[in-house]
Protein 1
Amino acid sequence: MNRALRLLRRRLVSSIPVLLIVIVGSFFLLELAPGDAADAYLLSIGGGDPALVQALRQSYGLEGSTLSRLWLYLTSLVRLDLGWSVIFNRPISGLILERLPNTLWLMGSAVALSFTVGSALGIVAGSKPGSWRDRMLSTGSLALYAVPSFWLGLVLIVIFSVQLRWFPTAGIETIASGRQGLARARDIAWHLALPVAALGLIYLALFLRMMRTGMAEAWRQDYALAARARGLGHRRIAVFHIARNALLPLVTMLGLQAASMLGGSVVIESVFAIPGFGRLAQEAVAGRDAPLLTGIILVSAVLVILVNLAVDMAYALLDPRVGANEVTA
Amino acid sequence: MNTISLSRRTLIRGSALLLVSTALPPVAFGQSGSRLIVAADSEPRNLNPAIVASNGVFFIASKVIEPLAEASFDGEGGLAPRLAIAWEGSDDGLSATFRLREGVKWHDGQPFTSADVAFSALQVWKPLQNLGRLVFANLEAVDTPDDHTAVFRFAKPTPFQLIRNALPVVSSVVAKHIFEGEADIAASEANNRLVGTGPFRFAEHRPGEYYRLERNPDYWGEGEPKLDEIIFRVLPDRAAAAGALEAGEIQLAAFSQVPLTDLDRISKVPGIEVYSKGYEALTYQLGVEINHRRAELANVKVRQAIAHAIDRDFVVRTIFLGYAETATGIVPKNAPEFYNGDVRAYPFDVDKANALLDEAGYPRKDGGTRFRLRLLPAPYFTETRQFGDYLRQALAAVGIDATVVNNDAAAHQKAVYTDHEFDLAVAPTVFRGDPAISTTILVRSGTPAGVPFSNQGGYENADIDALIDKAGETVDTTARTELYKQLQVLVAQDLPIINVADWGFITVASSQVKNVSNNPRWAVSNWADTELES
């Protein structure tokens, strides 16, 4: 336990410079992007006169130098103030707190779907590499992995919403339905089914392939041979010996995929009109809302760090060899 | 040591549970009888049409806040009365009198009076509104001799023709009692919690999800509104909007939110109607902006060659799928008051374009290329981007090698209108009922850098500038109209900008929705007579 705590502390301390780099890096990247919030706004309203342009720039605080704005941002961040969104005219922390839960539901469900079903199917494929089931699943997953998520989302909408009318085409819940409690939860789950499938199926393919490859290799290991020599059944070896060992890299992958899924949610949230974190990021980029985007990137970085920390902790618990060197080093 | 015990059974159970959870029984789409659900592709950050006169704002806000008059197919002078019932300009152009509707109440129960009009004009339209700043630049005072008369007084003669044509766009009236005393009206929270006199009250905005408007039972229009509720559902993805319409989750998508490429298919779906009417007073224009600082493009023969190199019919047929008209100049055909078709024409003629370029002194070099340039298509519409690709090929056919530079909106604004880092740009400009509102700025010199949809190509023509200035102070309607007709001749001759096509948008709606597209600004009008047949 002590070991895990020391690992946790060490990781938390090392994440501080990471966050700082993320903040400063994203701030300067945004500075490099051509056009600012006033440019984006002027276009959205169809133009205006020179005095309006000047007034906008002033009211958005775009007149100072980059460094002075960065300093202002960092000092307010120390006070845990994420700043004010130019495009929404609201405090950023409130906006993020409002949108984040939708994305966490979407991502969490997609991770759960892809990890459980992906590894389960991977076990089916990997328990007999080369069998027809393996070939079918491998080919299918490769095809699925090659599909862009926005396209998959649209195809799912056409089949399950437009043709079969089983699921709604968009949104996080039924509009102005007044549902509460369990009924609302059911409504949200019903709305999330297609976006979760669109986001999760692609990662499902990834987990399936990793599991399958890991198992295919493990069959050649000595311990597999030993298990067979002990007269254990094929299925028993596959599930309890081979799959268990092949599962470890998947756990690492889970952490890595969290960041990529956050990126994928930008697209999926747009296709399914889910008011989430990803769409907020898209709106921030289009509107050149630098403080909002920096806030979003910062919170995303914290999320990814936390997920990876959880994965590391889980890994350390699953495999005692992991982290031992790091802690004693 | 902790171990995980993962059995196949556990895995199958887990997976099955997860699958079952995603296949919950379908819940009925709860929709009341006269709730109209409409697709919206954006959420304006300031929803007050008195401050932001843009189609995105009007689309939602025009149902809540009304103008003095609205565009009309059959009304006198193309206008239908709203909060004003009569209007007249003085002969000297120094005043305009509006007779206001009586018995109108704000949504909070307060009476609507001329004081609200005076406050809106002097405190909001003139100092704050993106278009009103120009139209009301010389507005000095608004007299209110009684509660239902407002007399606008101008410091310099202001053509009443302009005021009248601009009414639907610039005259959204806000309540004085709501905004009075606000230190900064533009930043007021009331701009996003609208109180108006319109047929619908602003009920709710769930960011990222929807706007909900509900019936105003005290509306002045007899028997109106017909709908109980309008919901503007935020659907940023266009393909998803088409799906939602087909699935019956929304009943209407305006502003071509269903992409043109989907129209052929969707028009065959039973119960869905496609309307191409209803956008006549908000015509968009596809134009090629030219940076006249480039020596080659400063040569009028080169500009004329480019105009001849563009096959306008092909553009209308292939890019707009027929839902557009070829353009002859800076005023579209569906502005008959001002349109002048008797101007120099540039029929598609590659040989002539080549000859003009040779004459201009830019012969084809070894590889067949005369010169290279940068082409920046505006990113806001699929059609502007597609036209960018077409134009590159059309230019290649006459030996001009164009590199297409694609930017997002903010970057495009900076590159073209602020930094002038372009040679040709594709712009979707808008004709807003009168050339003085947003058209002459495209060719008049002297606009400082940073102003979008203005002459940022460095074009200067003393004759054109003089004509525009004269029209700006000509009070007589016939004389003023004639000046704008002359302007079209000069522009077509010298081509400071090349107009290619004029297009309106498409509305796709369930056939249950009645009275769709029945005025020239339908999508951005009040929808008081819109009905939903059960």
Protein 2
Amino acid sequence: MSDWVEACDATDIDEEDVMRFDHGGRTFAIYRSPDDEYFATDGLCTHEKVHLADGLVMDDIIECPKHNGRFNYKTGAARGAPVCVNLKTYPVKVDAGKVLVQIG
Amino acid sequence: MARGMVIIGAGECGGRAALALCDLGYDGPVTLVGDEPHLPYERPPLSKEAMASDAPEIKVIASDEVLAGKSIRHIHSVQAVAIDRAAHTVRLSDGSVLPYDKLLLATGSIPRKLPMPGLGARCVYLRTFADALAIRAHLGAGNRIAVIGGGFIGLELAAAARKLGASVTVIEAQLRILMRGVPVEIAEIIHQAHIAEGVDIVCGEGIASIADDGRQVRVGLAGGREITADLAIIGIGAIPVTGVAAEAGLTIDNGIAVDVELRTSDPDIFAAGDCCSFPLAVYGGRRVRLEAWRNAQEQGALAAKNMLGAGEAHASVPWFWSDQYGLSLQIAGLSDEGKSTVRRDLGDGAFILFHLAGDGRLVAASGIGPGNAVARDIRLAEMLIGKQARPAPEALESQAVKLKSLLAA
């Protein structure tokens, strides 16, 4: 089990929005839901490796900025063409105003 | 015993339709007929990423395993030659006859041919993966490429050719590149990007002659200049494939004419994607034909639903994109619906032009910038267009106002 990594301040991300986080040669997307919860997934869309942090968050869906592939960012589930491969998700917690991600 | 669903055309649209039929629970036979030897594949990369690679690969929409898992029968390398509407059958070029309950025509479009004498083996068009491979073989360093037509296909190929070290001349008969559907401010940025990358662009000059001896092409311009190239790539638009539909007596109107449910003039035959013209609800039913990847995908899925009796009307907003060098352009809606524009700057040189109708409705948004800088706001604009919203021009202009906040209004 790997350690928790600090991704950003909780206030760095607006509600219902997403931000890019790079760590150890890998790239992730950190989400803040409309209900003020935080989530993390792999950064790149499973369709054509486009970064999801440029995409649009609506409720619990992140939409790829290029080809509109959709995922539920809470579960990673692919939600329609052209994506068919799920997105990997990572545990997230907020501690003392910092967003921490467990990138196993 | 169901006769089943037959789909003519195994591109993005047909492929998506076949998958959708199965995903919607249809358990009768689904037959997908394509004239290429490949599995259904994505065409957009053919003028982009695939071209820059040393060994271009096909990006399939559905593998053999996926098709088999869904019991989709894929017949490749054959064409539909005739539809017998009374008998509900389609005859194929291999002589076989397929019965259908519902038929989907997803025949796509083919490149418009340059109506001139003198064309030969070194004058090519791009439509298929095979075309792309043939073009790729000529894009190496030191080669001279003439691109005839300053539209998206030609410009994307010009960018790919420069990346691979070829010298490139783009010839556009109109006064500027991207005349159709792209605002002049954005076309100018793309023009300058090509110039900066060393592309020679000639606008406003027609082609007087073409001489192709099988090894090189000499393109004579109306003004007297002659351009010699190892390959001439012709990208002057596309025309819908309607032959079989027309012979079967279906209504043709700039493509196979369909209604809001993508039904042709025969209730058991649907058409979708590049080959059809359809009423666009967001513009009061204006009949359009779109040559766009997402439209093909969405209409394929919608046609599948309606073949199963869903009765769902098409309600999307047109959307397309283009990548050239590090720039990405995205357009939602049809900008010719607009009477005025409002500009929103997003930083890093990225900006969006919002096109407003006379009554204040947002009817289109055109954006350009590095990477995917404009993607999110174009997507939000697309939703606003779909809602026929009338956002305040000052709100569209101001970076301080989030577009998402306008959606709730």
